[in-house]
Amino acid sequence: MISAITENEPLNLRYHICKIYFFMQQISVEELEHQLKSDATIHVLDVREEEEYRENNIGAKLLPLSRLRNMDAEDIEGWKNEKVFVHCRSGQRSMQACMILEQLGFTDTVNVQGGIIAWQQKFGDKKLA
User: Fold this and answer.
1) What is the count of structural domains for the chain?
2) Where are the beta strands (DSSP E) in 1-129?
3) Residue 92 falls within a domain, yes or no?
4) Angle 43-66-110 (CA atoms, 0-180°, nearest 5)?
5) Contact indicator for 87, 45 with CB cutoff of 8 Å
6) What is the DSSP letter of 62?
7) How far, in Å, CA of 109 to CA of 93, rounded?
8) Domain holding 55: CATH number?
9) For the purposes of burial, counting CB atoms within 10 Å of the CB of 6, is it exposed (0-12), middle (13-18) or buried (19 or more)?
10) pTM for this structure?
């Protein structure tokens, strides 16, 4: 529950917290898999770190959150006006990544709820189509 804003809390921080919970587009792994079947041009971004990606991945484009935090999204600059599905391990870092991407001018970011953990629970080692 979000408490009342106090004098000591910056309004900007409160705004971003509210945005995460109320305004960010979210999608389940089941919905993502359905989208993948119906549209071959979907962009899926993995924001985990390289070591995590090497251990297991679903074939998404890797751009670690650590790079995004430095405002480095050059590798996906061409996706700015297209839908970008963002995933991580559990869905927390991908929420941060969506917010950063929006600050960088990306117009349609979608957080994948549950991340690769939810994907593997539902689809095992299945890769993106």
Assistant:
1) 1
2) 26-27, 43-46, 61-62, 83-87, 108-112
3) yes
4) 30
5) yes
6) E
7) 13
8) 3.40.250.10
9) exposed
10) 0.83
CA distance 41 to 25: 19
Burial level of 32, CB count in 10 A (0-12/13-18/19+)?
buried
Contact assessment for residue 21 and residue 14, using Cβ atoms and an 8 Å cutoff: no
Between the CA of residue 40 and those of 29, 31, 34, 70, what are the distances in Å? 16, 14, 11, 30
pLDDT at 22 over 70: no
For 68-93, what is each residue's pLDDT tens digit?
999 999 999 999 999 999 999 999 99
Q: Would you say residue 11 lies in a domain?
A: no
- Tell me, what amino acid is at 123? F
Is 51 among the domain residues?
yes
> Is residue 43 included in any domain, yes or no?
yes
Token pair belonging to 110: 């979608």
Residue range(s) defining the domain that contains residue 61: 25-123
Residue with tokens 């919970």: 21
